[in-house]
Amino acid sequence: MSNEESQNIVNGAPGELLSTKSKVLETGAATVQDFRPVKAICAHLNAFHAYASDPGRCVEANHYCSHLNEDVRQCLIYDTPLPNARLIGVEYMISPTLYETLDTEERKLWHSHAYEVKSGMLIMPAPSMVPNAVWETAETKEMEDVIPLYGKTYHLWQVDKGHKLPLGPPQLMMSFTAKDQFQFEETVGDRDQRFGTDHKHKKEIRKDIKEPDIHPDADSMWNESSIERSKEERGGMDTDGAQILKDVHSK
Predict the structure, then answer these.
(1) How many CB atoms are closer than 10 A to CB 67?
(2) pLDDT, tens digit, for every residue of 177-194?
(3) pLDDT per residue over 64-111, tens digit each?
(4) What does the alpha-carbon distance between residue 168 and residue 245 come to, in Å, rounded to a whole number?
(5) Fewer CB within 10 Å of terminal CB in the chain, N or C?
(6) How many Å apart are CA 90 and CA 76, to the nearest integer?
(7) Sign for the pseudo-dihedral over CA of 70, 71, 76, 77
(8) Neighbour tally for 134: CB within 10 Å
(9) How far is Cα 77 from Cα 215, in angstroms, rounded to an integer?
(10) CB 146, CB 124: distance < 8 Å
């Protein structure tokens, strides 16, 4: 039996269950410390990211975001919305005004959010006690605020590969900009089932959200040469991507 096979896996990572001492320290810290940066989180957003180095791979991303100011947001990204979720990455979002100040090479590292919003892929999961109509109004307003922003995202933990720890260098991630870039219906449909949402309905109620002009330097990985190179390296498009995501969320 290999070392990996003999390791205890707790909450998706090798290690032991929390000891009584650690639980007591956790409870005490929560009582006396204020955790102000974390308490500034004001939105939970869910969507999917694609690897810039391998667009055929995608991963579900639960963003917990706070505002530094009106032009800058910062988000912690987890693999699930559950208490035992693994922190897998970070995303920064900036206004078009700030994006325009970046140099050409830097702008290529950022992605748009227009397709995520307009397709219904990007959601703000609803709390269980809030009436749906009320929450949809709030969610639509949030989408109006997000759609013009540009995001820069790095993932540190490749959970879609089954890694038990965050291995290797950070991975630049991008957003999807068209339905045919991945197994949209299967992947987003599976997410909708788990969250009790419907991307088709969200697409309909967001049809009046104005779509911004996207800077030509953004979403740089979705140029023809990048897509064809990825297909050749993988021997085809991303037919296993949706199944990998299903496997991750069934564990």
Answers:
(1) 15
(2) 999 999 999 999 999 999
(3) 999 999 999 999 999 999 999 999 999 999 999 999 999 999 999 999
(4) 20
(5) N
(6) 5
(7) positive
(8) 10
(9) 25
(10) no
